[in-house]
Amino acid sequence: MLRSLAGPDAAAAGGAKGAMMAAITRRGFLGGAIAAGGALLLPGSANAEDKASFSFVHVTDTHIQPELGATEGVHKAFQSIRSLPRKPSFGLVGGDLVMDAALVPHSRADQVYDLWKQEADLLGLPLHYSIGNHDLYGLKVDGKPATDDPDYGKTLWKKRTGAERTYKHFDHQGWRFVTLDSVGTLLSTCGKAISTTSS
């Protein structure tokens, strides 16, 4: 049996010195040893395969629109990214690029997506996208879903981001990145922000 510096049996071990000791079971010791051995294989450890380092940025919830200084805010944020001492290898975009394309006519959806493209092009990085609930188009336009519009739902987002699907994976220098789609196309499933503004 091995002893640890703390635990429920510490007081029973006797005195102040005993209060710092407790039994460790063989199973607990072996589990800890396996975990410690596994940690040596993690990236960044001394024994890990030497890989070239890289960085990336995560951009999310820009909610770009011409109002409320949103475009200027995105511009400043992207300017900060461009001025980093080491250029990131790519950007992960977590969704909600635009503000409420779901509830506006196509012309307004095009306007906010144009603003996103204008700023994203200036970023000068490959971008990998996840869709957000505000990125959907036509869930409620003029009081009803625009299901007859070919850009309805997630289609406009795919066209504007160049994505083939709303989820994907890609590899970069031995690391796998996965983007997911957790957004439904029913107004009631797209989150409180959209459903409360639709009434």
Short description:
The chain is an alpha/beta fold. The chain contains 6 helices and 7 strands; from the N terminus they run E-H-E-H-E-H-E-H-E-H-E-E-H.
Report on the structure:
With 199 residues, the chain is of the alpha/beta class. Helix content is 31%, strand content 14%. The protein has a three-stranded parallel beta sheet with strand order 3-4-5, with no helix packed on it. Strands 1-2 form a two-stranded antiparallel ribbon. A hairpin with a 2-residue loop joins strand 6 (168-172) and strand 7 (175-179). The chain is globular, with a radius of gyration of 25 Å.
Provide the CATH superfamily of the largest domain.
Answer: GpdQ, catalytic alpha/beta sandwich domain
Shape: globular
Proportion of residues in β-strands: 5-15%
Under CATH at level 1, the class of the largest domain stands as: Alpha Beta
Key attributes of the depicted protein:
199 residues; alpha/beta; Purple Acid Phosphatase, chain A, domain 2; 2 domains; 3-stranded parallel β-sheet; two-stranded antiparallel ribbon; 6 helices; 7 strands; 14% strand; disordered C terminus
In terms of topology, how is this protein built?
Elements: E1 2-4, H1 15-18, E2 22-24, H2 26-39, E3 56-59, H3 70-82, E4 90-93, H4 106-123, E5 127-129, H5 155-161, E6 168-172, E7 175-179, H6 192-197
